[in-house]
Amino acid sequence: MFTRLVSLLVVYIISTRDLSHCCQVKQFAGKDSFVCVCNEAYCDSIVTEPNSLPDHLTIFQSDAASHRFSKSIISFNELLLDSDALVDVHIKVNGTDRKQQIFGFGGSFTDSAGINIKKLPAKLVDQLIENYFSETKGLGYTYGRVPIAASDFSQRYYTYAEVADDFELKHFKLAHEDTLYKIPLIKKALSVSKDLRLISAPWAPPSWLKTSHRPKGLGILQDDPGSKYWKTYANYIVKFLETYVQHGIHFWGVSPQNEPSTGLMPNWPLNTCGFSGHMMRDYIKKDLGPALKKAGFGKDKVKLMIWDDQLLDIMPFIRVILEDKEAAEYVSGVAYHWYSRLSLGNWTRAERYATDIIEGLNHWSTGWVDWNLALDESGGPNWVNNFIDSMVIVNNTSPEYYKQPMYYVFGHFSRFLRPGSTRLGHSIIKNNAENEVKLTV
Ligand SMILES: *[C@@H]1O[C@H](CO)[C@@H](O)[C@H](O)[C@H]1NC(C)=O
Ligand SMILES: *[C@@H]1O[C@H](CO)[C@@H](O)[C@H](O)[C@H]1NC(C)=O
Ligand SMILES: *[C@@H]1O[C@H](CO)[C@@H](O)[C@H](O)[C@H]1NC(C)=O
């Protein structure tokens, strides 16, 4: 057993900097930081090679003022010389206190991401894929989320089974969004990140399965769990998984429903379907669980992740499912959400994002999948105008895109907390400056 004292340097790094991977800075009025511009002439990359000097540390630093993964090298001697002046935070790491293993970090292959990325010249598309998925030059993503049919980040509402009362799903068909945007983009990502694991989720079933007969607003599946309506929604998910397999794409996981709580709210503005914890429990054990298993997508092949919604209200919902032995048998894990409005060059935003990720990790989260891989200058397109932020914003009119502060801050997790690494127990034993804990991952 050993306990080690790790000292964290925050601001006083004066050693040589490696400037070869610098950000091409663009500032926006009223923002506390900047974005990095990528165009055909230039794009920065994230290179995190450690130094080969004995007794030296390599430090990668990003901050509001000027740095994006700036590398500095410092010797242990320098570190010890004047540690009180240098060190803001002491973290005591307990090497024998092993917590969860990291699963991975990633982003989402929405229609909108595909639409924005497809607007770019071919060279920039490859560049952007590398920015995200390369383990040596980008964020090293190993995880991705794919909506089943339309999410709100689509240009229109659609499902794959629009023919009413087609309970056998004879008319099930992928949309042009799949063949034009999602599938080609996923394949490009797979060519860079071989171990990419994908999770999918439907936003809404075909409307003829719902009480409301429409995608938005208050509405649940007709009839009861175990009925043909519920079975058809389960089979719809199975069909999706099977059809993607035909395109060479195998999913690691699926969630039964994106944001199930929203379909229980009157006037919810985007495509959804409501489930309470009890409804979800019965749907999983009577319909979805058996359907997945029968089709060869049992737990050993495809992980069923429940909740997939905002953190608020998570406990009562998942408890009902996980306390039921039969339903829990089909479930592999729990997923939860985070969002914000578009704000270019906002460092505060990035720090909040990091704080939430750390908080999640400290409470046994095993990874984080960011939302749209790329959005446009208004935070869309979104068919219900639910515009939000993204790590990458593509310019609508010129062939360039912007890497937000969030992109780099997320990289401090995804590049260093590789899949299979283990979180160790720690305690903070001194904390002079405010905010520093955020930088300690
Ligand atoms: C380190 O963690 C182990 C395992 O949890 C625990 O038994 C031990 O007491 C911890 N050591 C210290 C110094 O906190
Ligand atoms: C930056 O992001 C923070 C956190 O999301 C937000 O509160 C703030 O309004 C944003 N600032 C600007 C200038 O948009
Ligand atoms: C996008 O490019 C146009 C043309 O160069 C420029 O005027 C505009 O400011 C850019 N948008 C952003 C968000 O920087």
From TrEMBL:
Single Gene Ontology BP annotation: glucosylceramide catabolic process
Any single GO CC term annotated in Swiss-Prot or TrEMBL for this entry: membrane
GO terms of molecular function: glucosylceramidase activity
Cross-referenced SUPFAM superfamilies: (Trans)glycosidases
EC annotation from Swiss-Prot or TrEMBL: 3.2.1.45
Domain Glycosyl hydrolase family 30 TIM-barrel: residue ranges: 103-340, 342-417
Sorted UniProt keywords: Glycosidase, Hydrolase, Lipid metabolism, Signal, Sphingolipid metabolism
Signal sequence region: 1-22
Annotated Pfam families: Glyco_hydro_30
EC category name: hydrolase
InterPro entries: GH (IPR017853), Glyco_hydro_30 (IPR001139), Glyco_hydro_30_TIM-barrel (IPR033453)
Catalyzed reactions: a beta-D-glucosyl-(1<->1')-N-acylsphing-4-enine + H2O = an N-acylsphing-4-enine + D-glucose
Family stated for the protein in its record: Belongs to the glycosyl hydrolase 30 family.
Protein's recorded name: Glucosylceramidase
Organism of provenance: Tetranychus urticae (Two-spotted spider mite)
